[in-house]
Design goal:
By secondary structure, the chain is mainly alpha-helical. Helices cover about 70% and strands about 0% of the residues. The N and C termini lie far apart (about 165 Å).
Length: about 220
């Protein structure tokens, strides 16, 4: 007997394919086939003990029970296939999430904190410069989270210092720009004054030349 590799769909010519599956299934009719065949052989060979219509009715009953069991098997196979597809989909989702978790875990394991490359002040300098509020917020030294809290406090303190220096630089930059603008204004005024003085010198020179010319042309008085 060749075992089928897949389950074929029901034939559209099957008259019982659309019958609903009863709550309680009939027994397997295989055990009744031998006695039914023996009764048929007896009925065909000689006078039967059981009338032929009774045997045909029994045959129809066995056939109907076989169809009911077949429909139940198809229905249960369909349900099992749906459950299998659902489980396969859930498994794929779990495998996808597991892959993401593994990627994030590997990324966390390979992560190197960038603050380690910063040139932070020593712990002693930090404790000396930081205020009492920042130092008092640290957990006890024997606490396992002390080192982590101390590192965060040092980073926050350094960030505050950097922001303060940036504010000072911005203020000095504004003052420098104001001085540059003032120097430009003074230079422009100086250039304007120099132009006025040059014009005044030329005008005075022309007037002096004219006066000298008039004085030279005037006759001498007796």
């Amino acid at each position: 007997m060749v075992v089928p590799t897949d389950l074929a769909g029901p034939s559209p010519l099957d008259p019982l394919v659309l019958l609903p599956v009863p709550p309680s299934l009939p027994p397997n009719p295989t055990s009744d086939l031998e006695s039914l065949l023996a009764s048929f052989e007896t009925a065909l060979a000689s006078q039967p003990d059981i009338p032929l219509p009774v045997l045909t009715a029994q045959m129809r009953l066995i056939n109907r029970n076989a169809h009911i069991l077949l429909n139940a098997a198809r229905h249960n196979t369909s349900l099992a296939r749906d459950e299998l597809d659902k489980a396969d989909l859930e498994l794929r989702g779990v495998e996808y999430e597991l892959g993401k978790v593994r990627e994030e875990t590997k990324r966390c394991e390979e992560y190197e904190a960038g603050y380690r490359d910063l040139q932070l002040p020593s712990v002693e300098d930090f404790l000396a410069e930081a205020g009492e509020e920042a130092v008092g917020a640290l957990p006890p030294k024997d606490d396992e989270g002390y080192e982590h809290a101390l590192t965060l406090a040092r980073l926050e303190h350094e960030l505050a210092q950097i922001k303060s220096r940036e504010d000072e630089i911005a203020q000095l930059t504004k003052q420098r720009d104001a001085v540059i603008r003032s120097n430009k204004d003074i230079k422009m005024k100086f250039q304007t004054s120099d132009t006025y003085l040059a014009d005044f010198a030329r005008t005075a020179g022309h007037m002096l030349t004219k006066i000298e010319s008039v004085a030279a042309a005037k006759p001498a008085t007796k």
